[in-house]
Known about the structure:
By secondary structure, the protein is α/β, with parallel strands linked by helices. Helix content is about 30%, strand content about 20%.
Amino acid sequence: MKKRIYLLRALLPVLLLAGCGGSGETNQNTSPSETAVESAAEDTSSDDKETLTVAMELAYPPFEMRDAAGDPAGIAPDLMKAFGEYAGYEIRIENTSWDGLIPSLQTGAADIVISSMTITEERKELIDFSDPYANALLAVLAGADSDIASVDDLNQTGKVLAVKSGSTGHMYAEKNLPEAELLVLPDESACVTEVAQGRADGFIYDQLTVYRNWQNNQDTTCAIFIPFQDVEKWGIAVQKGNQELLDQLNAFLADYRDKGGYEELTEKYLAKEKEAFDELGFQWFFDMQDQ
């Protein structure tokens, strides 16, 4: 099948991405001892440290996922483990469906939510967010043989657009693509499958995810990176009004950045993607230059 990619800058050659070789599967280079987070409610070796329950959806590699042993792994678990060490907490991760993340804070079932969640005004009415720890732009994963060249091409009667329920891609499509038929699915992998198998014309999600899934499905998909909205910022969420925990998180994020923590996460999980984004001139996921 013909492979196509639409770049941010018209003068950049298509071969830039074709030679990058995105990572294929969930990162398995780390042992459970390096990334596993405490999962038991009681730990007699914890020296009576307070336990914080962290909710995330373990379905978004390499940010939130499971390792070969089934334990929480990825960028968010590593970040929370580092926060626990910094602030003196035991961290317990609860795998929570996307739709249940905000309610878990509201009901007190979780103390923290970190799950690649974009800071939006609507969400800020329900929960409080830390300073941003990452940013992303939306992009489109389309079928390799489709006629989709921009997000506007999806705004037509007869076009089927896969979206993850409750995601910013879902919100964008509802607001800006009224002519498209929305196929609302519970997770990213289901949306990718619909596009790869030709049942959907496109899937809107962040650039990094679209890039990785295009790399994994180059025979059946193409990536459209032409930006069509402002940079999204991801934050760590806490229950409304929990200023003490919020202050601890913000102090940790500043310290973590100063000590090169994000560079370590990039090298561990996203080295090839970082190389590709640098060549394309895209703003990197952890580069908060406009914060």
